Amino acid sequence: MRSTVATGSDNYGKLQVVYRHVDAGPAPPATSEATSRVMRRTRRVGTAPELALRRALHRRGLRYLVDVAPPGTNRRRRVDVLLRGARIALFVDGCFWHSCPEHGQLPKANREWWRVKLHGVVVRDKDTNVQLAAAGWLVVRVWEHDDPDEAADRVAALVASRLVRPPQA
Ligand SMILES: [Zn+2]
User: Fold this and answer.
1) How far is the CA of 144 from the centre of ligand 1 (A)?
2) What is the pLDDT of residues 60-89, one digit of tens each?
3) If you measure from the C-alpha of residue 38 to the centroid of ligand 1, how many angstroms do you get, rounded to a whole number?
4) Where in the chain are the domains?
5) Neighbouring residues of the ion ligand 1, judged by CB less than 5 Å
6) Global pTM?
7) What is the DSSP code string of 27-38?
8) Which of 3.40.960.10, 3.40.50.300, 3.30.2290.10, 3.40.50.1100 is the CATH number of 5-25+44-163?
9) Are 42 and 121 in contact (CB under 8 A)?
């Protein structure tokens, strides 16, 4: 079993997370059509919900980079949508992989392997949040089941609030 440890702290230095990557081992063969469909759908970039959200952001005049790691952060932790000016790192989390409380569920077959695998994703997400916050990024996570227009409205409001300049003395 391989494991690596990374540490980080949030903006305020209050929170420290020790991240240990636990390798669940090689993927077991998909035993059901449903599982293999889920596994096939696992493309890192440009899932349908992400594309819908990107279009909604674009309609609101927001411009962004896609699938990049901000300078000075772990290059293997790529952000789905990066709004550079406002320093917002936006993720569109898939309900299955990121264990959505409404739709996430463990496949019945190879249950233990999936439990380790999916728990690892959640822990890694938390660590990514901490690392990005430490580098001055506001992390926003949207579920793939979220309405893209509502999510885009929320992001647009955050962008506006973060782009406001303090009054000059
Ligand atoms: Zn969901």
Assistant:
1) 6
2) 999 999 999 998 888 889 999 999 999 999
3) 14
4) 5-25+44-163
5) 95, 100, 102-103, 143, 145
6) 0.78
7) PPPP-SHHHHHH
8) 3.40.960.10
9) no
